[in-house]
Design a protein that fits this description.
The chain has helices at 19-23, 94-108, 131-142, 151-157, 164-173, 199-217, and strands at residues 10-11, 42-48, 51-57, 62-66, 84-86, 147-150, 185-186. The relative contact order is 0.18. It contains six helices and seven strands. It has a four-stranded antiparallel sheet, with helices on one face. Strands 1-6-7 form a three-stranded parallel sheet. The chain is α/β, with parallel strands linked by helices.
Length: 218
């Protein structure tokens, strides 16, 4: 049996995640800057149910997603499920268009996220061999929509069961939040733990996934 926690999401252990499930995850390209010229960074703003998401990237891949810091939850159990991209879509590099499309689906039509391609990433942290990269890659690959995992469990999956504190550092350093779902990493006690976008944002994202997963199950 999977262990439920306060928000109704599921803890999932390594034994409970089938190889076929993990293999079905769409994973982005991890591009490298070696042998390429300086990239030209472009910016886009996605108006989402949780505020303005600032996306930066280039023709090679997404650099960062910057979250607003919520002080209060959006009105209602679920904010109006609408997203609007500020600016011209045609002038944006393809990775930014893919990123915006994926985020729009996450908020408005979560069932489509598994079918959409994830944008390629172009950030040094996701290109260099490090424990942080391994943690973020493992999280992206193995912890699905509506699931939760503890810092300790994620450390074990990433290959170092004693590195729960380092996992917390990796979550704080995550340049691509929501897509790399650091909001799904919580304390072993069931407390949600800290989040770069603030605890209110983390609470909203977890509740959003719980509610949407329940709707899909009906």
């Amino acid at each position: 049996m999977l262990k439920r926690w306060a928000f109704g999401l599921l803890f999932v252990s390594r034994e409970q995640a089938s190889p076929s499930t993990m293999a079905s995850r769409r994973v982005p390209k991890m591009t490298s800057k070696e042998g390429t010229s300086q990239c030209q960074e472009k910016h886009a703003v996605l108006l989402s149910p949780v505020g303005k998401l600032e996306i930066s990237g280039c023709e090679t891949g997404v650099h960062e997603i910057k979250l607003p810091r919520l002080s209060v939850l959006p009105n209602g159990t679920e904010a109006a499920m609408r997203c609007e991209l500020s600016g011209s879509v045609t002038s944006m590099p393809e990775p930014l268009q893919q990123c915006a499309a994926w985020l729009n689906a996450y908020f408005c039509e979560p069932s489509r996220t598994e079918q959409l391609p994830l944008p390629p990433f172009h950030h040094p942290m996701l290109q260099q061999d490090s424990f942080t990269k391994e943690v973020l890659w493992t999280l992206l690959r193995e912890v699905k929509f509506g699931e939760a995992i503890s810092y300790q469990q994620l450390a074990e999956r990433a290959g170092n069961s004693r590195a729960a504190r380092a996992v917390g550092g990796a979550m704080r350093s995550n340049p691509i939040p929501i897509i790399i779902p650091c909001h799904r990493v919580i304390c072993s006690s069931g407390q949600i733990g800290n989040y770069g976008g603030g605890n209110v944002m983390k609470e909203w994202l977890l509740s959003h996934e719980k509610l949407q997963k329940e709707k899909l199950a009906d």
